Amino acid sequence: MSVLLIRHTRNPAMPDASLLPAQLAGQPLQCLHCGSLPALAQCLHNARYPAPTWVLIENSATDDTQWALHGRTVCNALDALPAPYIEIASNDADTLETHLHPHHAATAVVVCSTGTDEARRLSLAITTRLLSNGQGA
Question: pTM of this prediction?
Fold first, then answer.
């Protein structure tokens, strides 16, 4: 069992280590970087095999052309995700829900206009609380 953080961003640099604990409620935190919507779909598809307890999806701004080309593939991969997930974004326009309306909806969508670091910190706290209360996949 683990928690998986999928970062869909053009910036491959990982956040400061102090912002990413090694574990959440005793479960290891694994991080993946996806630089495009096709890569995000592949990361979501691959998440079926380690069977994480929770998935955190940090989504970044993507233009409408990319959503039109790859949105259905991302939505299908999201709907096949075997775990509950929390979505992280810096504004409402960047959320998966805004673009995809998946059947497998997020447990929570955390949007912080102050940036993704704060949204990620809040998402990690929510996930820790859910795990501590025994809520998992």
Answer: 0.85
| 9-15: long-range contacts, CB 8 A cutoff, minimum separation 24 | 9/33, 9/34, 9/35, 9/58, 9/60, 9/116, 10/35, 10/60, 15/117, 15/120
**Alpha-carbon distances, residue 136 vs 21, 45, 104 (angstroms):** 19, 19, 15
pLDDT in tens, 77-107: 999 998 999 999 888 888 999 999 999 889 9
Crossing angle between the packed helical segments 37-46 and 64-79, to the nearest 10 degrees: 10
Query: What amino acid occupies position 81?
Result: L
Residue 95, token pair as written in the block: 């959320």
Secondary structure letter of residue 16 according to DSSP: P
- How far apart, in whole angstroms, are the C-alpha atoms of residue 117 and residue 100? 24
